[in-house]
Write a structure and sequence with these properties.
single chain, 236 residues, 24% helix
Amino acid sequence: MSRIVKWALLAMVALAVIGGVVAFGAMAFVFSIGTAVIPVEVDVSVLDRNTRAPVANCLLAFEKGGVNLGRPATIDYGQTTERTDAQGRLRHATSHSYVGSMFWPFDRERDPAIRFYLGEAPHLGSTEEVESWRVGLRFDEPWTSSTELVPVIEVQRSLAHEETRTRSGGFEPLPSEPADRMLRAVVRFGTSEDGREAYLIPLSVFLDAQQIRACQAPTLDEGESRAVAKRLLRGR
């Protein structure tokens, strides 16, 4: 066998080996891609936009919609019903999911989003519109877990109404304002109450007088309960 033929065979074997390694690496990369779910715990402070006084008894009806990381994991639907305490505080737990790969850990951009209504969410059959906020937070997750950072914040406000109305698919956009006039947020990296790695987000929400009236208004159930209590008192 001539030297040229030997070198050609060696080159073919080398190419085959390299091709196999590349193919295996590509398959491993594809199969390593998965969805990660991180708990997000939001510590909310609702404040008067002008005086910075805390706003008590304010309902921010958060969209649940995230993954409940209990055992087994489930998806929550609907809106929360908790109101702020005397210091204008409440907590909301949700989650953020993103697609990543163990073979490409350098993509660190994260973009959790939080949506809530100022007051009770719209009911089917109701013509009332409720102000809705979608708060998007964008940041690069640090390599260490002890860092606190200020995310890029985008706030989208709209008037929300029940789903059967056709205008804008149920949301009518409101004029935009500078994000720092509406809220402030930082992102901390720690652990959730059950010991998982989590995003801990102190969030300050600034509301004007009209928005405060809307979030402090009684819900439909609360109004009906008060009406029943009054009737019972009159019947005594």
